[in-house]
Design brief:
Blueprint (H helix, E strand, L loop, with lengths): L15 H8 L13 H12 L3 H17 L19 E2 L18 E2 L2
Antiparallel strand pairs: 1-2
Length: about 110
């Protein structure tokens, strides 16, 4: 059985907020009560990492562990507030965010 929730808010383009908010042992928003202190040490390590590729690998390692342990499975990611009508052309949406990077000067309507 899987229970869905949509209570997480998110900042743009940084893994710290969802990791600490949803999976840290002492977080008030860790609604499932998941706790893995060793994994939490990796949260701190990735947060301090200045090399973006190394940080990305650490976050992928954290994510793999969270998925394997069933901490809070991510069922889907929404693409909210995005226009997908076929007659709208030229919309470019950021692949890692729905909140920034839109270039509306290139949008046109093909009717």
């Amino acid at each position: 059985m899987v229970g869905l929730e949509n209570t997480a808010s998110a900042v743009v383009d940084d893994p710290d907020q969802p990791l600490y908010e949803s999976y840290a042992c002492d977080s008030d928003r860790n609604f499932t009560g998941y706790c893995n202190r060793q994994l939490e040490n990796l949260f701190h390590q990735q947060s301090r990492e200045i090399d973006q590729e190394r940080r990305k690998r650490l976050v992928w390692e954290i994510d793999a562990t969270l998925q394997e342990e069933g901490a809070r499975p991510i069922i889907f990611h929404t693409r909210g507030a995005t226009c997908w009508q076929p007659q709208v052309k030229g919309v470019t949406v950021m692949v890692n965010s729905i909140y920034n990077g839109w270039r509306m000067e290139d949008v046109w309507l093909d009717k």
